[in-house]
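Much of our argument rests on the idea that a fold can be written as discrete symbols. Part of our work consisted of pairing the sequence of a single chain with a tokenised description of its backbone. The amino acid sequence and the backbone structure tokens for this protein are reproduced below.
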Amino acid sequence: MKSSRAEMWFKRLGVAVVFTAAITGCSRGRYYLQADREVDALLKEKSCDPRWEVPFDYNVRSDKRSRFFDPYNQIFPPMPPDDPTSHRYMHCVDGKRGFNRWHINGDRTTLDNPDWRSRLGEVVDITESGAIELSSQSAMQLAYLNSISWWDQLQTLYLSALDVSTERFKFDVQFYGGNTTSYRNRGPLNPSGQITQWGTDTNLQARRYLATAGQLVVGLVNSVVWTFSGPNQYANVSLVDFTFIQPLLQNSGRSIALEPLTIVERTLLANLRQLQFYRQGFYLQVVFGANQPQRLQRRGGFFGGTGFGGFSGTGVGGFGNIGGVFFGGQGNGLQTAGGGTGGAGFAGGGAAKLGGFVGILQSRQQIRNQEQNLAAQLRALAQLDANLEAGLVGVEQVDQLRQSVETSRATLLQAKTGLANQIETFKVNTLNIPSDTAMALDETFIKPFQFISPEMQALQNGIGDFLATYSFGAEEPLKEVDDPRQDPIDDDSTALERVPPVGDEESAEPLLLPAPVDQNDQGNTAEETAKEVSLKKEQSVLQPQADLKEDLKETDKMLADADQSLITASLEKLDLLRDQVELQAVDVMSDLQRVEPDAAYRISRMRPTDKETFTREMRLLNDDLERLLKQIDENEKEIERLGEALVPENLRETADAVVVLVSEIAAAVDEMSLIQARARVEAIAIHPERIDPDIAFEISRANRLDWMNNRAALVDQWRLIQFNAMSLLAGLDLEIDGNLSTTGNNPARFRAPTGEMGGRLRFDAPLTRLIERNNFRQSILDYQQVRRQQIRYEDRIKLSIRQLLRQLELDERNLETQRRAVIIAIRRVDQTRLSLSQPAPPPPPLSADGSIPIVDTAAGQLAPTATLNLIYAFNDLRSSQDALTSIWVNYYATRASLAYQLGVMDLDEHGVWMDKPFEDCSRMSNEEMPLPPPVPQEWLDHLEEIDPPPPLPADAEMKVHDTPGILPSIIARVMPLNSEKSESTSNDQTKNKDVLPASAETKEDQPWVDLIPSFLK
């Protein structure tokens, strides 16, 4: 007996161990992986079309190269940095000791991935200096890697799949089990008697929710009781029971049971589509600075939970107005309207600045235009200073240009600061990387708008530096001419450091030596010495005097050697600059040769007269370039000749020739730069694609994924009418239950005589249905509201498409206007620049009678508005260049936005747009995709009905109509047929009514039988 009892205890202990292991469940990691596998299967199931196929690398865990990758265990994450004062309450709160294992998983010191910077080279190209080479492709790669909004969309899609998993689980067979072990002891003096009792109750249950809204529950209960007081007693009883409940009228049928599952299934499909549509909008946001695209919507569950707990079917979308119904945006894409202002003669019409990566390039190009404008003004200022010394211009005109230069410098500084802020804002808000991350812009996209190449600009700056270093004047050769309007710099020790170096500064001043002694050994007097020194100062080192005394010959020779060395160095430097001019001439020739192939489409659309003018102008530009090339060759020969013929006797003549040569080369470079700018301006072209707005609308209807989602969302709202209408019916539920127990102490000995079975039909009269009525009425109005939104949504798409097509046409025409404005500005700059270098006219000859003619004091001077004309020409050139750039960039952005609106934006593996013709896209007419049907009118009329339907005539024909539910044969409605007699009777009765509902929308002669809801027929 004892051994059997011990064996029984061991068996119970084993059962307890197994039970304990069962209640602990699986590990966290196993549940984690189970959810991932199930979501992966659901997403693959919904990827039934390549247009919204789930990305092959889809993962809600961040990439290891991402800044937001979490290198720690996500299932047992360490504690993030906490506020020290707040942290105390985790260990002691209100004098009570807190949980002592908060730090069991460790503590982390940083929130971001500590290795993300070192792994950037695996994602994008890095320059030698360690900066990210930022292009449209690398910007998209960094955005996909680090963008918070992008990862939010991926996780929303994951949660949407979990909602489907939750709703599907409701229709699975769900098993539940548990055990209750109890001990009970009553003492010997207890009135109920002494008892010592051990008991264990084990229950297993299986539940199933049916697609017809019925529920089936099957349970097994085993109870074991040991009583140790008195004679030992042992009882073991098992019980099997079941319960089946099936609604027959109210809240019955598949329209009720399957609605939450239907919504989450359709929402998961919609979110897959929306993810692809989001990617297209994400490209526009990163590259062009468009608004954030429409986000994915999770329509399953409230307050972040999965499933549809609390689903009532009321409100827009059936969720009490939580979240929207539509999945797609309704905006008009990029805002492309813009304007522009400039100086006198500027043709306005430039487009607004963009954002994103292209906006950064646009700002960079505008800064480059400002830098070129400032350099050109500085070169003109140096020429005006020379004209000021020659008396050809007044000081007020020079000051006007100086003021313009200072203004341009301040504006340029402000623009550079703004660009730095723009880049750092782009890093933080779009790419989600720190603002101090080094970046180098890839300007390939904007390079066609560098009308003057950086090499040409460097050459012009080099010539300016040459003029600053080697300045030869006629009055004081080999000596920098001081500006008479500036204070002397002798008292300022730091001012000399700011002056450009002058190679002949020391050799330009004769050395002062002691006066020679005469034959009588008598020295010169102080007065004679002063006169002689003054005379030597006035004499030029380039004009040797024949009567120099013997003791100054050595000094003169030293000065002559220094002058000759300086001129030789200047000739060598000038020859190097001339070689660079030849190289730039080859580039300009290449730019001219590319004009016709690059502008072939534009040339083909020109009128014959315009084409002839264009050909003539291009021929003139080639002739001008050939003339400049010949001049450059002649300059090379002249440089060689001057170098070979340079002797101390012709230093003055050589210096004058160098001055003329430098002026010719500088003028040639300036003219060459304008030819290059003109050629590159002519090469700017767009290739417009003509598409009819109606055809574009059909393309959008067939390809826009968000439009597909919105049509589905409208039907979702339409189904809720039926869902809420089922609540208006009377409650009639069929309930069947039963059980079967064992006999004796054998837990498996079930016998039929122990069983019990029963059933009931529970009826709930529809006496109070006000809440249900209001929900039903709301669902109808919500559907009408969403249907109107759908119509307006389609109207806005059509409006957006028409506006974008109109903007493309405007940009195409405006591009030609701005092209002509840039060409005119180039000519104005050329003409105003030439006016500064024109020689002064000679004085008038004597009159025939020998009298002196009247001389105009202003003769030989520049026009009083010459400087203003030059300033306006420079500003207009810069403004027209900025406008031309903005129009072309805006055309490209508008075309990308049109592809987005049409739903045909194809992205490569890096998420970059691949521009393709629109005409090849699939189309869908309105007849091929009609809208869902309107709400049946009888539903509305029956709801608004005030008077009850009239009694049926005694001789009316009868027809039985099944009502919705699981058992339609239990409840039936008797409906009259639409006979002529009944129709005429009902018409008469309807006409005799005095009161009609205010919201009734039916005709007065409609028979009352048509007012019965269709689901009751």
